[in-house]
Amino acid sequence: MSSGTMRALKAKVKQRDHGCCYVCGDEDADELEHKIPVSQGGAPRDLDNLGLIHSEPCHREKTAREALEGSRKAREKKIQKQDRNR
């Protein structure tokens, strides 16, 4: 997605959400974020899937939670595969 498209989407979301972070609700959120990551099926340009978020701590903490969840799913998938091969 081009930087111009991202700027336009961010402006729309900022106006819609009045600059508030969708995670904590505080004002002055500085980043545009996919609520559901595109890699997990989230729509890249859908305004319902976009929200403003503070880079610290909200985005960092959300990213850490997503990484843990991804690791958990990968472990489960590996165990299921091992069980099938027994």
Description:
With 86 residues, this protein is mostly helical. A two-stranded antiparallel ribbon has the order 1-2. The protein has two helices and two strands, in the order αββα. The chain is elongated, with a radius of gyration of 16 Å. The protein has helices at 3-17, 55-84; strands at residues 31-34, 50-53.
Task: Give a quick summary of the entry.
By secondary structure, this protein is mainly alpha-helical. The protein contains two helices and two strands.
Give keywords.
86 residues, mainly alpha, 2 strands, two-stranded antiparallel sheet, 52% helix
Order of secondary-structure elements: HEEH
State the helicity in percent bands: 40-55%
E-strand count: 2
Quote the beta fraction.
5-15%
What's the structural blueprint in terms of helices and strands?
Blueprint: H1 3-17, E1 31-34, E2 50-53, H2 55-84
Antiparallel strand pairs: 1-2
